[in-house]
Amino acid sequence: MNVKYNFNPGPSALPREVLKIAEKNMFNYNNSGMSVMEMSHRSSLYEEIHYNALNLIRKLLKIPDDFTILFMQGGASLQFAMLPLNFRQTGRQAAYVLTGSWSEKAFQEASRTGSAYALASSGESGYRTLPSVDYTHCLPETDYIHFTSNNTIFGTQWGEIPQRESIPLFIDASSDIFSRQVNWKNTDLLYAGAQKNAGPAGVTIVVLRNELVKDTIEGVPHYLNYNTHMKADSLYNTPPALSIYVLGLMLDWISEHGGTEEMEKRAEQKAGVIYNLIDSSNGFYKGYVMPDARSKMNITFNLRSKELEEKFLQKANDAGFTGLAGHRSVGGCRASLYNGVPEEHAEQLAYFMEKFQRQSLH
Ligand code: PMP
């Protein structure tokens, strides 16, 4: 295999152990004579996989009993559309805190079906910072406030999301779920595609406070009402069984390796290795974002020129490092250090960066 070190931004690296178990069970899941892909989603065999994954999510994220966990399809992008349809009443408002491309997309989607406004934005800084948020600026008819906890493309991440008072607060945690604990007192709904920190693409986790959900909502298709999926334990229609199975394996792996608390320590350690290297490079590598807004998941940086960045990416690729190009909309370089990336890989990347700098200066 040429790829030794996978820094893909999502879908991204999964632990070898997880892939090995998936491989072992691919043909014959638990001696059932079938693959997970072949079994009925109404069978007890599948139900065990399904409820096991739901239970692990509740345990790992310490989710209180008055929240429901859902498995949805359509990625985080479908959630962008569903949130306003379900939780913004006709003629009322949704507030968005803009911290990057994904929060902009969520905002645009909400603007298509009703009124939404930017409560705060760090767009003027090129999304290098996080904005200060003043909830007293919320319009009186605001039904919810939306945050993106980690900004995958620009590489910023909220430490604590500012404490809201009464308006429900929704979080897109697509790129940092299971890398730290969630403050459920300050969160009413959280969602994330699994494909970065928690497994393969195809399943989206939604955790929501039960009291938010209504039986029917005028003009909203049945399938797009959260209540439909809540009532059916996320088995209203055929679920992405294989994705949920591998998600469960990944959650087992996280549990066995010390849970979310340990993932947080590892994330700090891995990110620290790369940020230290950047900070001690005398400006050869320049971090894209302001130090106090830095993400522990996606480390964005630039080199002196576009040509040097291209050379860096090429050499890195030749040495077995993949996924280091910045998002196509912003360029530069980005190392994504999700849960499946071993600490040793972050260290290897730092060695490589140091060596590349030395060789370029001679
Ligand atoms: N939100 C964030 C923060 C993301 O990083 C992404 C994907 N990279 C999305 C939303 C969109 O996710 P999906 O592809 O699952 O729709």
String of helices and strands: EHHEHEHEEEEEEEHHHEEHEEH
| Through-space gap between termini | 32 Å
How much of the sequence lies in strands comes to 15-25%
The outline comes out as globular
Molecular structure report:
Helix 7 packs parallel to helix 9 (343-361). The mean pLDDT is 97. The protein contains 9 helices and 14 strands. It has 362 residues and is of the alpha/beta class. The strands form 4 sheets. It has a 7-stranded mixed sheet with strand order 2-10-9-8-5-3-4, with helices on both faces. Strands 11-12-14 form a 3-stranded antiparallel sheet. Strand 3 (93-98), helix 4 (101-112) and strand 4 (115-121) form a beta-alpha-beta unit. It binds 4'-deoxy-4'-aminopyridoxal-5'-phosphate.
Name the features.
362 residues; alpha/beta; 7-stranded mixed sheet; 3-stranded antiparallel sheet; 9 helices; 35% helix; globular; binds 4'-deoxy-4'-aminopyridoxal-5'-phosphate
Outline the secondary-structure elements.
Layout: E1 5-6, H1 16-25, H2 44-60, E2 67-72, H3 75-87, E3 93-98, H4 101-112, E4 115-121, E5 142-148, E6 150-151, E7 156-157, E8 169-172, E9 189-193, E10 204-209, H5 226-231, H6 241-256, H7 259-279, E11 286-287, E12 298-302, H8 306-318, E13 321-322, E14 333-336, H9 343-361
Parallel strand pairs: 1-13, 3-4, 3-5, 5-8, 8-9
Antiparallel strand pairs: 2-10, 6-7, 9-10, 11-12, 12-14
Helix pairs in contact: 1-6, 2-6, 3-4, 6-7, 7-9
This protein binds 4'-deoxy-4'-aminopyridoxal-5'-phosphate.
4'-deoxy-4'-aminopyridoxal-5'-phosphate is lined by residues 10, 75-77, 102, 148, 152, 172, 174-175, 193.
